[in-house]
Predict the structure.
Amino acid sequence: MEPGLSSVLTAERELTVTLSGDWSLLAEEVSLDEVLDALASDSVIERVSFDASGLGQWDSALIIALVAIRKTAEEQGREVDETGLPRGARQLLELAFAVPDRAETEHREPDNRFLYEVGESTLSVLHEGRLFFAFTGRVTHAFGRLLRGKAAYSGRDFGQYVQEAGVEALPIVSLISLLIGMIFAFVGAMQLQYFGAGIYTADLVGVAMVREMAPIMTGIIMAGRTGASYAAQIGTMKVNEEIDALTTLGINAIDYLVLPRIMALVLMMPLLTLYADFMGIVGGLLVGVVMLDISPMQYLQQTLNAITLSHLFGGLFKATVYGSLVAMAGCQQGMACGGSALAVGQCTTRAVVMGIVAIVISASLLTIIYINLGI
Amino acid sequence: MSEPETHILVENLSLSFGDMLVQQDLNFSINRGEIFVIMGGSGCGKSTLMKAMIGLKRPSCGEVFLDGEPVWGVSKGEGGSRGGEGESNRLARKYGTLFQSGALWSSMTLAENVTLALKQFTDLSDARVREIAEYKLMLVGLAGFEDFYPSEISGGMKKRAGLARAMALDPEILFCDEPSAGLDPLSAKRLDDLMLQLRDSLNTTFVIVTHELDSIFSIADRALFLDAESKTQLGVGSPDELRHDHPSARVRAFMNRGEVS
């Protein structure tokens, strides 16, 4: 039967609410407006009573309606007489009102949403920055301890991290740098052919890869691959209280977890970049041979003439810087992770974003410095 | 029996997260060889108090003394930077901690978990370290599981392995965060018995955070009740005293599951 609700104001200033039919969460909602409006506006009402003689089956839908009615009635200072309700409903209602609402649990809405958000995000950016610098300090401190031989440091873990950040990254680094080399060669060859200077494609690809592209692309790959994995590993350990367990045993988490990871990536980045240089040049060579009919020997000779040692070492130095930034961002976010599975996801995302932003900013700074130094 | 010796002293301790006060004015002492329970309703700050006692959560004021040495006065850095340097290592070796979920390091076998601290702080031979790991795991009924990874054993076994790790350096104090939470009644009972035996044979001081009344009544010598509403301790005493004679109705209600006698 359809659920229904009606109210009658009796002579004794009593509002009698009549409930009828089957009340179900799955059935259509019954409008309470009539009763609630009457309670809110009609000042004659002194008490509310219920008549449930026509009530059939009911579930939480009924209790939710009753809670709303009782809340409004009590706010207006009216008495609520529940004797007309079924026993089960009375008990559930009692249960619902057993613990008073806690004022502290209510979230306060700021007056100006926009200004509030701007302020909050500015403060959080500053806070993040401060945390990163504090972390840098702690890592530097830990390096000092390592050099004095006092750090709790595990050589076996270091080997493991070197393998993860090095050898296991080779396939993706090969693929990306080969394609980057080919794309550069394509674009370069199309333009340079107009001037009959197709051979200079080799210079373009070689210098671009060695100076800029190989370090940046490898850095970004490592941010998504290794930086994210550092953040997730350390963040999960934090959630499981594994970091606390290290600390209480007197083992410094920075020494034990962060140092070997940073060193592994800093060591592997220049090597991976060197490999990416090579793969990029191979990519350019393929395009040069197929599209421009340059002989492989000629292409390589041209490349060798174009690249200087300072290009090479400049690029490798950049790679080292990017590697340390990516590893720092990953570990810092992991160590700052909150206490839930959601937080691990967030810290991993932040580690990747932070790593890439750090790479781009430092790339610009380094390029300016190199130009001024004439490298 | 000789005069009880104070092992842990908590003075005027206040704990807070940012502006939110968790607990204030905590004052109590724990004797050597005692099983001391910290109890209270959910969210009242039991685990936070334990973290302050083991140097993981800096209190907003007050001090904790382990064996007369201040936990927070020694190192000025924040919690995470403790250890590594000589001074705090010495303190860290006085106590072991069993975390709620065991907190075993998942990339290491049980034997490696138990002996990591030994390897870091001592020059024992590998064979000797292995022997110690086997003995500690035997104590908690995990003989033969030395080369298992934490993911390969059950929750109850993880807790016991956590206890073995906490005992690796033969600490004088063992802190346990909800040791029996999530265990079936038999495993919980076994863990309780284990702690009683360890106390009786090694005179280890136990500080246990729990709200399992069964455990409290069967093993606790004394208990501390933290109240979430008044944000301070409401009573210290033996479980029976707290249950029958304590002036606060809230404490009596807690100890009697709400059925105030």
The beta strands of chain A are 4-9, 14-23, 47-58, 79-81. The longest helix of chain A spans residues 253-292. Chain A has two domains: 4-107, 126-373.
